[in-house]
Hints:
The chain is of the alpha/beta class. The chain contains 11 helices and 7 strands. Helices cover about 40% and strands about 10% of the residues. Strands 1-2-3-7-6 form a 5-stranded parallel β-sheet, sandwiched between helices. Strands 4-5 form a two-stranded antiparallel sheet. Helix 4 crosses helix 11 and helix 5 (about 130-145) packs parallel to helix 6 (about 165-175). The structure holds thiamine diphosphate.
Amino acid sequence: MTEAPTSPPSDGAANTGARVLGLYRQLLLIRRAEERLITMFADGEVPGFIHLSVGQEAVSVGVMSALGAQDTIASTHRGHGHAIAKGLPLDGFFAELLARDEGLCRGRGGSMHVADMSVGMLGANGIVGAGLSIALGSALAHKRLGREQVAVAFFGDGALAEGLLHECMNMAALWRLPLLFVCENNGWSEFLPSSKQISFALADLARAYGIPHTRIDGNDVVAVADAAADIVGAVRAGGPAVLECMTTRVRGHFEGDAQKYRDPDDLDALGPLDPIRVAALLLAGLGVEDAALKAVADEVESRIEAAVEAARKGHDPDFAAAYADVYSPAEAV
Ligand SMILES: Cc1ncc(C[n+]2csc(CCOP(=O)(O)OP(=O)(O)O)c2C)c(N)n1
């Protein structure tokens, strides 16, 4: 379902092996973390739903490579990649997904509500499009407080059907907010091709609001990183922008969805588009040895295993305290 990317090939001349290897490490960290979650979910260790970003990692890694720790992001229901790339501690991430008291949100949020203000991760979100308004508010705060920070709203193409997206684009344009809209266009909205749900192109919508729009190959991490570096600079200097990343959802909508609605040929065609494969080919072209890739893979595996083991040793949340932070005591209102 993914449309052919329209971006020019990324400029290899600007790439060094060290830079691309750094991006590759992040891609692999997200992929292996989610693969670990697949097995733990199948074993019943992960409560609730999980939605995996396998095939879409280059968007998270490329965009985050252009952000600083103080920049803020708001995520979606498919937010593991965003969270990890923004620099969440892996221990706290896995502990949260295993519903441990040691989790980043004390086990109360889980996969769809992971947040960590200390790294500017304002939260994953189970409500389609809701992250847009959170990022908009953050961008407004950055501007009002005179900070040199940007906010980034990640959203899927399914969010184009939400009225909130239109309101957020209008306000961001009207108030010239430092807000980057990043659409992860994987062609799907749950079990429905987005083409059966959306009547317009994002480029045309952005034009209607007077917001610059760029469309790139979202499976090429260097293309995303290069585009994001330019665009984040412009957004920081004044005003919103839209970055539309054409990408590929490999797993089902949620883990456990057998994708019976999907043409098997479509799934088979995704192999060559795998962002990790694309990055590995680029690294080979830059003369980076297989041994360096293997060293990265080993390092990633051991970081993940350590985080999983730490999470497993964590404690169940205190259910009696579940209301804390939900309601304010009456006397405080
Ligand atoms: C406001 C709202 N409407 C409907 C849903 C049900 N729903 C969950 S995910 C989804 C589709 C999301 O598609 P997209 O935004 O493209 O993200 P993707 O799953 O492709 O990453 C829908 C309709 C919801 N969670 N929130």
